[in-house]
Amino acid sequence: MRNYIIEDLPHYYEQYKKSIKNPKKFWDGIADKNFVWYQRWNKVVKYDMDKAKITWFKNAKLNITKNCLDRHLSIRGEKTAIIWEPNDPQEKSQHISYSELYRRVNKTANVLKEMGIKKGDRVCIYLPMIPELAVVMLACAKLGAVHSVIFAGFSAAAVASRVNDCGAKMMITSDGSYRGSKILDLKSIIDEALEQCQTVEHVLVVKRTDNKVNMQEGRDFWMEGLFEKTSADFVTQIMDAEDPLFILYTSGSTGKPKGMLHTCAGYMVYTGYTFKNVFNYQENDVYWCTADIGWITGHSYILYGPLINGATTVIFEGIPTYPEPDRFWEIIEKHKVTQFYTAPTAIRSLAKESADWVDKHDLSSLRVIGSVGEPINDEAWHWFNDHVGRKKCPIVDTWWQTETGGIMISPIPFVTPTKPTYATLPLPGVQPVLMDDKRNEITGNQVTGNLCIRFPWPGIARTIWGDHQRYKETYFTAFPGKYFTGDGALRDEVGYYRITGRVDDVVIVSGHNLGTAPIEDSINEHPAVAESAIVGFPHDIKGSALYGFVILKESGESRQKENLKKEINQLISDQIGPIAKLDKIQFVSGLPKTRSGKIMRRILRKIAEGDLSNFGDISTLLNPEIVEEIKIERI
Ligand code: WT7
Questions:
Q1: How far apart are CA 635 and CA 631, in angstroms?
Q2: pLDDT band at 501 (very low <50, low <70, confident <90, very high)
Q3: Distance from Cα 374 to the centre of ligand 1, integer Å
Q4: Whose C-alpha lies nearest to ligand 1, atom 18?
Q5: How far is 418 from 85, CA to CA, in rounded Å?
Q6: Among 371, 506, 513, which residue has the most ligand 1 atoms within 8 Å of its CB, making it the best to mutate?
Q7: Is the ipTM of this complex over 0.90?
Q8: Which of 47, 90, 339, 618 has the smallest C-beta neighbourhood within 10 Å, fewest atoms?
Q9: Is the overall model pTM greater than 0.90, yes or no?
Q10: pLDDT tens for residues 509-524?
Q11: C-alpha dihedral over 208, 213, 219, 224, to 10 degrees?
């Protein structure tokens, strides 16, 4: 990133001011100097926040893979692009160079093309953290197909709803997945899901575990066999700036997941720029982000951001505690990792183990460490700082969302003085504002409010696939003229931001964004359940966990109720995935409701949190007596 590396605090403020005063000029300069284009844009940005219409780099022509691969070949063709670290430390890790990655992407793009995939077609991907996952995503991008990666922990029903929503023509999966000591049978989940899907013509299966799988004649093919046969030359598809690059689903406040659509040029510019600055990436660094590629963190900061910058990026297949709770620290030592980016939930769970597990490893290669996904509490921040960063590495607490495409608020390492639990300052081009519930902007410092963004940035998702109205309503109507994040934030005396958590019906469990509505919908399908309400409550390791208040059609005996709890969690597990299971289930005879029939979740949240002191005004409730009952029987 020539000319746009932020060097010190005065330089940050200078860049920031320029980016706000003249965003067009700022992003024009970044896009022009740091990327390869077939054709430049004729308008940097055009937007209408009321209609939720945003375009960046209009009429530019490009392909993101030219920037991730081709342009590196002559200068760093033999440099390692991907270090793949398998689940089992006994298995050899792989180093894949830029030229080898380029070759595999070309061959795979040919496989997809021969299977009838064309520009604009949707391809769903359900794979473990293996190199093929990166390869197929890049192959889609090279060909112009829209990838939609579905996290390989989602259930068959959750997969089916996503496949049907985007009308995918192809599914790419594997015979299985290693997770610690377990083997997950991904292919049979896909078989079950596809029973409910009409649009998928072909399933490509990558070999990983040698599990026996069922292959449906004419529909299912082994990737390996096709890959071997195809040519290593592929003509890159020329994409328009606003052509779709990928769809990634995130939960929302209604049952249906939201297919956030990211487009080619803006996403590329934003992830490229933010990766370079937030991680202070230097040419010989080894960067590692522990997220799964099935989430936006993996898309932007395992794959695209690092490769755009010609980085070496680690892909880890396994889990932090297998075979022992020092797997992360062992990998850092083994590959001499320089940037380590992980989630508070992982930090908290590893901090529970003896400090010897981490202290015995040589982590001196580390220069920058980072956190993402949920607010990091003070204790976890200090443990991370003391034991992993050894008080020498700045912690970048990065706030952003699936919808934002890239990091929005974060310290710049060696530039922004950090402050525990604070995401600190907005990156250049990002204009946070705090709004009160009456839609007034809250100015000044030492204030809290609803976090909105005033001006579009290149990485913002452009729509919800197939439902622009919902996009507009979810993000641009609560605070007209602004993008509403769904988070609350505090601005301290020097203007640093601290994210205080969701202000809507989304709960972040172990860094996974879970809408409570879809979980309620699935519980309510149980024949014994009349109604339910789910809220989050603080949890030592997961950050937040889920508490369900459930009304049964008929009240049963206690043994029956214990069974029901298991059945309810099984149902959630089948319909959404095990991550959405409830930690606590309380059967109640009613839920506190307003006269208009809305559940007063504020009260349920307080009960779940164990704060039974002051419920505020409950006089507007239709059934105020229920509060006492729920309170007494709380778990
Ligand atoms: C929500 C977005 C962005 C990648 C992973 C999550 C919460 C994210 C932080 C942070 C406090 C954070 C917010 C946000 N969040 N990063 N550093 N501090 N909260 O993406 O699944 O779209 O979830 O995660 O509540 O709105 P996501």
A1: 9
A2: confident
A3: 5
A4: 375
A5: 31
A6: 513
A7: yes
A8: 90
A9: yes
A10: 998 989 888 899 889 8
A11: 30
